[in-house]
Amino acid sequence: MNYRRWVFVAIILFGIGIVFGIILTLVTPTGIAGLLSEDLAALEEQLSRILALPNLLICIFIFIKNVSTLVLSFILSPIFCLVPILSLIINGGVLSFVSVVVAEEESLGFVLVGLLPHGIFELPALIIGQAAALSFGTMAIVALFKKERRNLLSSSLRQNLKYLSIALALLLPAAIIETYITPLLLDLI
Predict the structure, then answer these.
(1) Is 81 helix (H, G, I), strand (E, B) or coil?
(2) Residues 96, 93, 45, CA angle at the centre, nearest 5°?
(3) Virtual torsion, Cα 45, 47, 49, 53, nearest 10 deg
(4) Do residues 185 and 117 touch, judged by C-beta distance below 8 A?
(5) Pairwise CA distance, residues 68 & 167, whole Å
(6) Using an 8 Å Cβ cutoff, are 124 and 170 in contact?
(7) How many CB atoms are closer than 10 A to CB 90?
(8) pLDDT in tens, 75-96
(9) pTM > 0.90
(10) How far apart are CA 58 and CA 49, in angstroms?
(11) Widest distance between CA atoms in the chain
């Protein structure tokens, strides 16, 4: 399967997560918020400590967290592609869940201003990186069971590492925008 198809698969999985998150939020909005209230309070406390750091450290933290997530997903992808699949679905679900909750508390404009500036880079990075992980993971699984396909594994690894590198490069401007520009835009609303 060529890489474009893996991008399409990644987009579909991310979309499934978005739909699942929206449905879950609309079906049981108070139930989920109630279940997560303690976790959200702890997360808010941790975020306030992180946000008290200098912006450069926040930017580095965001970048390293996102890079490590994509690299770990790529490395673990030969395990039935579970990590990239779960990453795409969970990220889509969390994005839609948080977007719906914030839109209800603030506004849709607030959500868009908070997501779009850095999301222009971060979402394609997620899709490109996870598509590379799915492509490589699938080839590794196929090579494990079909000896005649093992010779394709190294070329698949090289090709998918190139796509992963593109995804990782996109995470740098995303982290910079998320740290320096998004807060300024949110203050304007």
Answers:
(1) coil
(2) 80
(3) -170
(4) yes
(5) 12
(6) yes
(7) 15
(8) 999 999 999 999 999 999 999 9
(9) no
(10) 11
(11) 59
